[in-house]
Amino acid sequence: MGRLLAAAAFHRGLTPDAVTGLSACCTAVGIAAIALAPHTWVVGILVATCLVVGYALDAADGQLARLRGGGSPAGEWLDHMVDAAKSASLHQAVLVGLYRREDVDHAWLLIPLAFCVVDVVHFFATLLNEALRSQHGATTRSTPTEGRPSVLRSVVVLPTDYGVLCLVFVLLGSPVAFLSAYGLMLVGTAGYLFLALPHWRSEMVRLGARALPATGTTAHPMR
Questions:
Q1: Integer CA distances (angstroms), 70 to 61, 62, 67, 210, in order
Q2: Domains annotated on the chain, with CATH
Q3: Which of 132, 153, 122 is nearest to 220 (CA)?
Q4: Which helix (H) or strand (E) holds 106?
Q5: What pLDDT score does 214 carry?
Q6: 34 alpha-carbon distance from chain centroid
Q7: Residue 182: which region, alpha, beta or left (left: phi > 0; alpha: psi -120 to 50)?
Q8: pTM value surpassing 0.85
Q9: Virtual torsion, Cα 157, 192, 73, 204, nearest 10 deg
Q10: What are the tens digits of pLDDT across the range 147-196?
């Protein structure tokens, strides 16, 4: 979907920032509906559609930038700022929406609260890892590689996939079904983060050790 939207935007003469803005608007409509609209099956489909289209447009802005000859720091900054706002506000909207429901016990509100913390930490860690890898000349996620990731890895990281989370909102009309799927996404994301943090820390230690002989100091100026 991102490729198709990027091609359409290119032929329409849209800029990457305009596509980022459209992405933010679609996502904002979906998030607002989660918090303010009644949780029916129709609203769930609307929310999922808005979030998926917003996600596809988010994928399209970078591809459009490459079609136009390359992105810019300002464009990348805007893209990440929109992603950061989305990462935090989505789960807060779930919190508000569940609070407004009379058939949901308030104890269930702990799930979106926990998910907000886990998602923000995961998002920040992903950006920080990429920045440090790039700074120290290591391979980043954007580095072209031969082949595709293994099926096993794709399955393991599935709970962390934002696209899957978007589809979970189709179940919004049923609190039991939605909270079950949403809770499983939280458990999977938290489990992945728990297992990944020691690995990422070891990777950063290796990057620092590799830089030490060349610079005579560690990469962090405060240590």
A1: 11, 9, 7, 31
A2: 2-140+148-215 (1.20.120.1760)
A3: 132
A4: none
A5: 53
A6: 17
A7: alpha
A8: no
A9: -120
A10: 666 777 777 788 788 999 999 999 999 999 999 999 999 999 999 999 99
